[in-house]
Write a structure and sequence with these properties.
With about 130 residues, the chain is α+β, with helices and mostly antiparallel strands. Helix content is about 45%, strand content about 30%. It has a single domain, classed as TATA-Binding Protein (2-Layer Sandwich), CATH 3.30.310.
Length: about 130
């Protein structure tokens, strides 16, 4: 997909949430928001879905640099990470591609930051993939 990248794990959904959160920390990210999409859909419209969460990940130092460069860039933050139960013990972890999203801002410094953020998120994906 042009706006993200992912990995699929053979693991329990809740364990993957914990693993993702811990792996993000190793790259300087914290989780600012945790949206339980399946829980919200069930509560609001009575639709049953497999577990699906959106984690809003933020690296404060890199976010600060981006905000100093363009105060409106907050419209494109934080970096969303999805955790989606595929069934049969498979869980997909998807990462938004900051280069695709932040590429909307036509500034070299933002492009450099987006590349740094992508590299860190790819490292998180690789840690998860390798176990």
């Amino acid at each position: 997909m042009a706006y993200g990248f992912s990995t699929t794990l053979n693991a329990d959904f809740d364990q993957v949430i914990t693993r993702v959160t811990e792996a993000l920390k190793t790259q300087g990210f914290g989780v600012l928001s945790d949206i339980d999409v399946s829980g919200t859909l069930k509560a609001k419209i009575g639709v049953d879905k497999k577990p699906y969460r959106i984690l809003g990940a933020c690296n404060p130092q890199l976010a600060n640099q981006a905000l100093d460069t363009d105060p409106d860039i907050g419209l494109l933050l934080p970096c969303n990470v999805i955790v989606r139960d595929e069934g049969e013990g498979k869980v997909t972890v998807g990462f938004m591609d900051p280069k695709a999203v932040l590429g909307l801002v036509d500034q070299d410094r933002i492009g450099d930051l987006a590349a740094e953020v992508r590299s860190r998120l790819e490292s998180v994906r690789d840690v998860l993939s390798n176990g």
